[in-house]
């Protein structure tokens, strides 16, 4: 299955959340690959702590072409480089991956790569890649650039390609729990040039929303706040729920809700079980939210057409 992760705004928590979902599925034995299609800013290597690819994969010294997804999509190379996260991460606690775990592979962009121009053959190139990876991995997560970007246009075309006939795909749209983000995410999906309008209806794309960095007004984390502040947060939360419902982002369309996690606010990283249970530097709620999202991706009930 291919899952496209997108958002209208930048900085929504898309990459951090999707990386953690990839990690959790791999921990449970799935073979997972993560494709960095954020061409304007290919930094997913940093989240996996792969220092070598923290801003895309560098060229081999003296080579004419790069090795990453930029070069592949532009038709300059026949296969993009794949990094085995368990072996290439510089985070030592992750090196000894559980023996029951599945593969976890990152396809990074090119170091120094930026937004790309459309070129002849790019759609076919991408469709071919998705086809190959879908046959090899149980889950392919594609982290797209925000908004109606080159990457989004490209994959919207690629999914209609005959090469991808029969390949299951789903869309996750990330947004923060604020007025602007709710309106923006709704526009990206339901708007005039939104995903639904552009993808066509045959088959209709499956889309669900993920709320990120959400403050729970009833959380014990907020026990230091004054009663007036908590009351205000509760009122604001109700207003946002109403707004989300009106814009098509209500509960039935929501696949997951990730709490505000202090650890992630300061560092984009994978949240390990040891961070919660042994070191106690991260919250169990956050781990459970990633776990639940990872489960629901494959839960048919959550994706039934409404
Ligand atoms: N659940 C969370 N709690 C607190 N902070 C978070 C959470 N998720 C993400 N963040 C923080 O929000 C910021 C944006 O996250 P991230 O880079 O994943 O978003 P993005 O949508 O991929 O952004 P971009 O558009 O730049 O690619 C990061 O600094 C990250 O650490
Ligand atoms: Mg990102």
TrEMBL record:
It comes from Cryptosporangium phraense. It comes from the Bacteria. This is ParA family protein.
């Amino acid at each position: 299955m291919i899952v496209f992760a997108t958002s209208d705004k930048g900085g929504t928590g898309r990459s951090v959340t999707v990386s953690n979902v990839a990690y959790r599925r791999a921990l449970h034995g799935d073979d997972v690959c993560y494709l960095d299609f954020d061409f304007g800013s290919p930094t997913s290597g940093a989240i996996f702590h792969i220092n070598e690819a923290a801003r895309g994969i560098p060229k081999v010294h003296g080579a004419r072409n790069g090795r990453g997804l930029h070069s592949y999509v532009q038709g300059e190379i026949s296969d993009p480089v794949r990094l085995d996260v368990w072996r290439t991460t510089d985070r030592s606690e992750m090196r000894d991956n559980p023996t029951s775990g599945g593969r976890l592979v990152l396809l990074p962009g090119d170091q120094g790569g930026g937004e790309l121009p459309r070129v002849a053959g790019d759609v076919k190139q991408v469709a071919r890649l998705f086809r190959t990876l879908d046959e090899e991995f149980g889950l392919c997560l594609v982290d797209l650039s925000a908004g109606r970007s080159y990457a989004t246009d490209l994959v919207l075309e690629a999914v209609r390609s005959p090469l991808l006939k029969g390949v299951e795909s789903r869309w996750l749209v990330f947004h923060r729990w604020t007025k602007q983000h709710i309106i923006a995410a709704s526009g990206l999906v339901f708007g005039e040039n939104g995903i639904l309008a552009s993808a066509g209806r045959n088959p209709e794309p499956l889309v669900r929303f993920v709320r990120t960095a959400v403050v729970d007004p009833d959380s014990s984390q907020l026990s230091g706040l004054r009663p007036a502040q908590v009351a205000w947060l509760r009122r604001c939360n109700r207003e946002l729920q109403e707004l989300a419902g009106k814009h098509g982002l209500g509960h039935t369309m929501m696949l997951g809700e990730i709490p505000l996690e202090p650890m992630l606010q300061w560092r984009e990283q994978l949240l390990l079980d040891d961070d919660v249970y042994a070191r106690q530097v991260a919250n169990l709620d956050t781990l459970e939210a990633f776990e639940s999202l990872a489960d629901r991706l494959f839960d048919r009930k959550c994706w039934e057409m409404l």
